[in-house]
From TrEMBL:
Species the sequence originates in: Sporolactobacillus laevolacticus DSM 442
Highest taxon, organism lineage: Bacteria
A Gene Ontology term for the protein's cellular component: plasma membrane
Name the record gives this protein: Transporter
Record's subcellular location: Cell membrane
InterPro entries: Poly_Biosynth_Transport, Polysacc_synth
CDD domains for the chain: MATE_Wzx_like
Taxonomic lineage: Bacteria, Bacillati, Bacillota, Bacilli, Bacillales
UniProt topology in membrane: Multi-pass membrane protein
Segments traversing the membrane: 7-28, 40-62, 83-106, 112-134, 141-159, 165-187, 208-229, 249-267, 288-308, 320-341, 353-372, 378-400, 412-430, 436-458
The UniProt record lists the keyword Cell membrane: yes
Amino acid sequence: MSIKKNYLYNLLYQILVMILPLITVPYVSRVLLPQGVGTYAYTASIISYFSFIGLLGIDTYGNKLIAMTRDNKRKMSENFFSLYLLQLVLTLTSLIGYLILAIFFIQQDQSIALIQTISLLGTVIDCSWFFFGIEMFKKIVTRNIVIKLLSLLAIFIFVKNPTDLSIYTYIMCLSVFLSSLVMWFYLKGQIMFVRISFKQIISHLKPAIVYFIPGIALQIYFVLNKTMIGIVSTNSEVGIFDYADKIRMMALSVVTSLGTVMLPRMAHTFAIGQIEKAKDYLLKSLDFSTLLAIPLMFGVAGIAEEFIPWYMGNSFLKCIIVLTILAPTIVLMAWSGVFGTQYMLPLGKMKEYTTSVYAGAIVNFVVNLILIKPFGSIGASVGTIAAELAVTFVQLYLIRDIVPFKSIIPKTFDYLIAGFIMFIILRVVGRGMGPSILTTGVQILIGSIVYFSIVFVVEYLKRDGMIYHEVGKTLQKLRNR
């Protein structure tokens, strides 16, 4: 399937991922309040560590390995079964470890923590990395859309007041489990049954760990924020940060969907030796990601003050500051997604990738340690942006001699100017109209028109100028003759 179709399928799902929280967050934030939202986010952050440890990098490594061997069905099948058997042993061990922790060491939110076990069972049976590897995005998107819609319906039917936190947790965890379960029905015809030796299973352990090691750092600055806030501050502060982060990730998903599509394609392109073609893919992807990420950054910051009050309610007003601080990470994560996910990982540059993410993890942990206790969610947001800056700058430095980034600097500057003008207009509209759903709608509409109009005009004038320049050179040559 073509990159365009895969991107459109993935974008369709990412749009759904954006729309559903737009519906559920206002409802859940008012029903469960920051305390309930924070309790769920805090326990989910703990379960994510065990899920991450259980997978041991198999999701990313498996994606790449399947992509590289998809032209040989037998070899691909051997890789699938040997990888999944390794995953099964590791995730079941992780499940036992989590149950011991939840039963004997978690006291305050134990019932919610035990319900979260269901999502860990989803990790045990997860095989989505196989379908990403063969670029079968249509089935993944279809599955996710159906389950997301069913979970949305269940939330509105069964979650009515703060005491329904356990029901909300059941719904969210069952959606994860069912998403993993359904994919097994799609395996028929894609693989063939082959005998697997213990040696084949163990052979994947070392390379999977190579992908797991940088993932530790990613886990630190994607999840540790919420865990540290829950330990050092309060569950309400976890809820504030979690919902601001959700808005940021909703916006970022428009950009990161391209990276999900490009990883297996880049891995396959590198594997067959088409290095120059892969670099061309990379530059185009970077330009496209920047084109989308910059207006999203300015847009999120520009609408936050009018958006949060009507969307989440007055209990979450602190989200305005947190979300505004987090907004620049949309661009930083878009760039690091291209450098890391689309270049370093497919090319096997694990040392460079690991260095970058550990730099971010260390920065994040240190800043969090200093700022979370006095500033709560605001301190965590500063830690997040510091971490993303560290990751992006390290990656830029490490691959500076390989990828000609200078070629996209002029366009990036144009996008920044257009985004800043859009931001000023958004603030004028917001201050004039005040907080309301209508204001947000008008801001998004006007902001989109302003940004893309400016970009189009600037690019058109540049192209027109280049045409006139070439015509002038041709006429001058004719005169010289």
